[in-house]
Specification:
mainly alpha; globular; 235 residues
């Protein structure tokens, strides 16, 4: 491949990435929490960017609760234990509720919905639902990592006389384990962000701490959405 072909392929990946509404939302989320970190809750340009970006992101999430509703009613993997299935469904229900209520919050902030007290109350309830969904996601990832770890140990015993890293099944499970570990870190960080937004521990989880955790969590989300590079043919 020529340098022009390489540049064209890389630009195609960037276009593919930015065409995703979810990717644009996560980029805006990184800007939002980065601004929150810089402002530390103090009035100024950074806080204005935080608030305006937060409002803009809500447009990306309009009717997004339908995705979680679909996941809630869809059948699950038959080999998953019942507690993990229930936790996964609870996460979908809670996240869907958060996204649905968040639309009413958006209507309130734009002035379409006039009852400010009700909108503020629904905003707090929506954040509590998001925090609870993050707790469920953390428990799901812990459970799945435990299952993967057990499967990998069993596979290691079967491959004790050979190089396990040359085994396709082992590499696949290792990759899934890495992905689950990253998702676990993100879910745990989102719990801290929710605690900060709800001001449940204002002395410990300050706006700067909330911004730092939210920024890193957003970068993880951006990384998770990266498209896989196309495989080049050997010449």
């Amino acid at each position: 491949m020529t340098s022009l072909d390489v540049a064209r392929a890389e630009l195609a990946l960037v276009v593919l990435y930015l065409n995703k509404a979810e990717a644009r939302d996560k980029i805006c989320r990184a800007i939002q929490y980065g601004s929150k970190f810089l402002s530390n809750g103090e009035p100024g340009t950074a806080q204005n960017v935080d608030k305006s970006t937060s409002l803009a992101r809500k447009v990306f999430r309009l009717f997004k609760f339908v995705n979680n509703l679909h996941a809630l009613i869809s059948p699950t993997s038959s080999d998953a234990p019942l507690p993990l299935i229930l936790l996964g469904k609870s996460k979908n229900a809670l996240l869907g509720t958060f996204l649905f209520l968040d639309q009413i919050v958006w209507l309130g902030r734009t002035g379409i919905y006039k009852n400010k007290e009700r909108a503020d109350l629904l905003g707090r309830i929506s954040l509590q639902c998001w925090m609870a969904s993050s707790v469920c996601a953390t428990l799901v990832e812990l459970g799945e990592l435990g299952r993967l770890s057990a499967a990998m140990k069993k596979l290691e015993k079967d491959l004790k006389n050979s190089d396990k890293y040359k085994n396709e099944q082992y590499r696949s499970k290792l990759q899934k384990s890495n992905e689950r570990s990253l998702a676990l870190v993100k879910a745990a960080m989102d719990i801290v962000v929710a605690v900060g937004l709800l001001q449940l521990a204002p002395k410990k989880v300050t706006p700067r701490v909330t911004g730092a955790f939210g920024f890193v969590s957003s970068l993880i989300s951006c990384y998770q959405l990266l498209p896989s590079p196309p495989k080049t043919k050997a010449t």
